[in-house]
């Protein structure tokens, strides 16, 4: 919450008090609970987005989501491009395009396969980042376990098709790129300014296809409101919660908790969308979760952490 309440310049004894009260309220919540709330928020936002796919194509939902997230981040961070080199600007532009690809791919995947399956496959991205460069057999075993889980998902039936898996793999690759680019952006831009610029680039990149496919739907206030809600639930709110939690917990613990995301996605898909998974698919999700936790614990000294837009 602290990120969201720091948008203004407090006057003498004025807006500073509500901001301090909000930070104090969030500070009273255990960091593990903040992470879990963030994960649930992301997946509830995804379920809301999937409910829109019947009348609002995935590309249009992505465009509205990124636009909403960009507006919030720009208002909070108030980024400036002054003093940055062309290399900095090129890097943050690539970061923004990666955000657009990651969001577009996972929504295209969710339009074709259950949420829990899509998020599980997508989670291969941060898993690979966690073990990259490792020469330990144990880390390779975690990757093999996760790969076996994905094979079970791909062959498990229950509404899973090859194109949906393919889009999820593309989202995984983009997520891996997102993690590296996010770290570079943090080093070159102060605060959340770089992320705000990147999210704006992503929104602009996603807009043409979203508008072309969404058409008249963009004139429907209710659909736009739902799309904005997706942006807040899937981006702005969880980012704020995770930022506050990371101030009070080691990155390794954060990464382990984030490994629960595929299971939460499956549960939200079951409750909100009625997406029933077979036992084989639950076993596959368990394989990826165990592999993610194992790789993260083993990579603690390398400081590998999982991050999402």
UniProtKB/TrEMBL annotation:
It comes from the Bacteria. Keywords: Cell membrane, Membrane, Transmembrane, Transmembrane helix. GO terms for cellular component: plasma membrane. InterPro entries: Diverse_Substrate_Transporter, EamA_dom, EmrE-like. It is found in: Cell membrane. The chain crosses the membrane at residues 28-49, 55-77, 89-107, 113-133, 140-156, 162-181, 193-211, 223-241, 253-273, 279-296. The keyword Electron transport does not apply. It is a multi-pass membrane protein. Residues 163-294 form the EamA domain. Belongs to the EamA transporter family. This is Membrane protein. It comes from Actinocatenispora sera.
